[in-house]
Amino acid sequence: MKTMKFPLLLIAAAIILSLAFYSSMPDQMAIHWNAHGEPDRYASKGIALFLPPVIMGALLAAMILSSRMDPNQANIQSFRSGIGIIRIVLLAVLLGIHMISIAHGLGYAIDVMVAAPVCVGVLFMVIGNYMPTIRPNYTIGIRNRWTLTNDKVWKLTHQTSARWFVGAGLLMLLTPFLGYPWHVIALLLLAFGATIVSVLLSYRYAQMEHSSK
């Protein structure tokens, strides 16, 4: 139950904020911003305020369910604290986005093109930090035919990918300084790049393992 405390507090915070500021919000609220950091999609304040907590709750439920259904329960339990931290950070990012929407509704000028890369960058760094502790499972990590069929390939992939994710996360913090449109291009390249490199690394380690036999 301890691992559920903070995730539930984050969801509760989103609900409390929505209730507290409901009467202060305009009838239409921004829910999406373009690459220039300008709102380009709106929704009624009921949807804009209460859909995010629902999404957060659904995401938490999905993460819990996937963990409990994983056939490698012993491995899941071995890094339960790491999974808990990743859940908290992911929900905190969603809460941060929710707060940006509320702040915009109150008339505050929030630079989304700074806030978004910071949120994503922190998430990548947290995931990267815990990657080396993740043992083979079907819930979280670099899961493909090469990592799931060989424990050594899994371990090597996650040890190396951890550095790529942390490095990508750090560089994401700098992308706002590039200006439009390079900040968006750089953010996408870093996010997809770290993920693609991780898959390629798993293939490389699998080939090395196969050739050594």
UniProtKB/TrEMBL annotation:
Protein's UniProt name: Putative membrane protein
Gene Ontology biological process terms in this record: response to toxic substance
Record keywords: Membrane, Transmembrane, Transmembrane helix
InterPro entries: DUF1648 (IPR012867), SdpI (IPR026272), SdpI/YhfL (IPR025962)
Pfam families: DUF1648, SdpI
Domain DUF1648: 9-56
Electron transport found in the keyword field: no
Native source organism of the sequence: Paenibacillus phyllosphaerae
Residue ranges of the TM segments: 47-65, 85-106, 112-131, 162-178, 184-203
